[in-house]
């Protein structure tokens, strides 16, 4: 995720990720800033380093506490004639202002100590206000509520311990309580705003991560689709090349007419395979643009041409197409049927050469469309072909994506059968 351009303008709790727990209502309890759940430091106990903004805020807080302390000490000097009490107020007030620099490390302990001290030393009132504000910003509601209640109780006692002759006791209690509540509420507002910013930053980070995952998934699906298309298109062509090249290799004494026919099939298959490969690469280079994105796609109407091509290659194929109007079949369903039949014929050519293959297609709108490819067991042992089984995996994925299903397996007599059902809406 992109980091802010000026991290030194942020508080340390927001400049370093994970130092503020958004803690939504009803969620898990909030941990201490800079510490993950369980109370253990995620960075070997190191506290967050102050940013430039933190130093500026700490200096301003110190000066504010010192200013209020001087005002309270001056008022105490005018009210009290005892030099010892005045000196005590000044010393305690100065120590309280210096203790402000510890508010980030021990906010709860410092607030409790200053709450007690302020009862006997009004010069510590400014430091107490800064401490309560810091506590509200950096700690969750429970410790803040306890310290806040303690400060209200002791604040009500303070006018009786150190009365101000110029102000009534009730007025002092009310003013002190209002000031404490305002300071605490302001700190809670700042904390809530920081939590909101952190929550939005985390949501943005998750959104970026999810977008990357979606992009990776889209790329993976595109690669799978391209691999499936290349297998379906090229396997058929290359199998024809292999069969006729093998025939020429093992029958060098074949009649010239058969050699010429096999060479012609090899030439046409190589040309068609190269053309198909060019089209697929064109789609890879410029998806959606150029001729590759608009190249003709096979449909159920082109199934006859596929069977005729296989027969020309020397296969025995029986086509039983009971669809009266192939053009009425949706293009996506027809293309899936074509690919299933193409893969079935390719497998039969590789694993059961010389056998008679039956391709059956049937169905009607509303009932769905079925396609089956059957071939008997081959004669003799057939050498294993590398990469066998990948095409059937791709066909199963095709049928599933189309909303149907595909089954395949060996029959009782040693043959092989492929059956697929695809939805055909009425």
Can you describe this structure?
The longest helix has 82 residues, at 169-250. The chain is built from 11 helices and 5 strands, in the order αααααααααβαββαββ. α2 (52-79) runs antiparallel to α5, α3 (83-99) packs parallel to α5 and α4 (107-120) packs antiparallel against α5 (125-138). The protein is α+β, with helices and mostly antiparallel strands. It has a 5-stranded mixed sheet, covered by helices on one side. The protein is 59% helix and 8% strand. The protein has helices at 12-15, 52-79, 83-99, 107-120, 125-138, 141-161, 169-250, 256-285, 303-312, 331-351, 390-401, and strands at 316-321, 356-364, 368-375, 405-410, 416-422.
The rounded Rg comes to 42 Å
- Helix-strand category: alpha+beta
The run of helices and strands is HHHHHHHHHEHEEHEE
Please, how many helices?
Answer: 11
Mean pLDDT: 77
Biggest sheet character: 5 strands, mixed
Bulk shape: rod-shaped
Low-confidence residue ranges: 18-45, 289-293
- Multimeric organization: single chain
The fraction of residues in strands falls at: 5-15%
Q: What is the spatial order of strands in the main beta sheet?
A: 1-2-3-5-4
Proportion of residues in helical segments: 55-70%
**Structure summary, number of beta strands:** 5
Distance N terminus to C terminus?
50 Å
Brief overview:
The chain has 426 residues and is of the alpha+beta class. The chain is built from eleven helices and five strands, in the order αααααααααβαββαββ.
């Amino acid at each position: 995720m992109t980091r802010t351009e000026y991290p030194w303008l942020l508080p340390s709790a927001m400049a370093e990720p994970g130092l503020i727990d958004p803690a939504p209502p009803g969620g898990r309890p909030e941990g201490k800033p800079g510490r993950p759940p369980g109370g253990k430091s995620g960075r070997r106990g190191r506290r967050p380093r102050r940013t430039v903004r933190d130093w500026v805020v700490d200096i301003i807080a110190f000066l504010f506490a010192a200013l209020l302390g001087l005002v309270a000490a001056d008022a105490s000097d005018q009210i009290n004639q005892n030099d010892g009490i005045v000196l005590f107020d000044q010393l305690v007030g100065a120590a309280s202002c210096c203790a402000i620099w510890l508010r980030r490390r021990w906010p709860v302990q410092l607030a409790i100590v200053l709450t007690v001290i302020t009862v006997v030393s009004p010069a510590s009132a400014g430091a107490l206000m800064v401490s309560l504000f810091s506590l509200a910003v950096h700690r969750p509601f429970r410790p803040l509520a306890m310290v806040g209640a303690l400060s209200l109780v002791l604040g009500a006692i303070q006018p009786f311990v150190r009365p101000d002759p110029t102000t009534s006791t009730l007025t002092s209690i009310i003013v002190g309580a209002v000031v404490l509540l305002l300071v605490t509420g302001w700190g809670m507002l700042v904390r809530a705003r920081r939590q909101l910013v952190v929550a939005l930053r985390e949501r943005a980070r998750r959104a970026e991560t999810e977008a990357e995952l979606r992009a990776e998934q889209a790329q993976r699906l595109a690669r799978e689709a391209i691999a499936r298309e290349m297998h379906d298109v090229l396997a058929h062509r290359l199998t024809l090349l292999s069969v006729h090249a093998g025939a020429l290799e093992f029958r060098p004494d074949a009649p010239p007419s058969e050699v010429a026919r096999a060479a012609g099939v090899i030439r046409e298959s190589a040309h068609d395979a190269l053309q198909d490969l060019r089209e697929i690469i064109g789609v890879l280079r410029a998806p959606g643009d150029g001729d590759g994105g608009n190249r003709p796609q096979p449909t159920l109407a082109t199934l006859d041409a596929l069977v005729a091509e296989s027969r020309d290659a020397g296969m025995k194929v029986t086509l039983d197409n009971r669809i009266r109007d192939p053009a009425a079949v949706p293009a996506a369903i027809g293309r899936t049927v074509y690919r299933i039949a193409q893969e079935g014929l390719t497998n039969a050519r590789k694993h059961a050469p010389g056998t008679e293959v039956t391709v059956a297609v049937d169905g009607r709108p509303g009932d769905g469309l079925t396609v089956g490819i059957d071939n008997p067991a081959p004669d003799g042992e057939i050498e294993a072909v590398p990469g066998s089984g990948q095409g059937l995996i791709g066909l199963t994925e095709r049928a599933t994506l189309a909303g149907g299903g595909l089954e395949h397996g060996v029959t009782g007599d040693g043959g092989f059968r492929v059956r697929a059902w695809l939805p055909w809406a009425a």
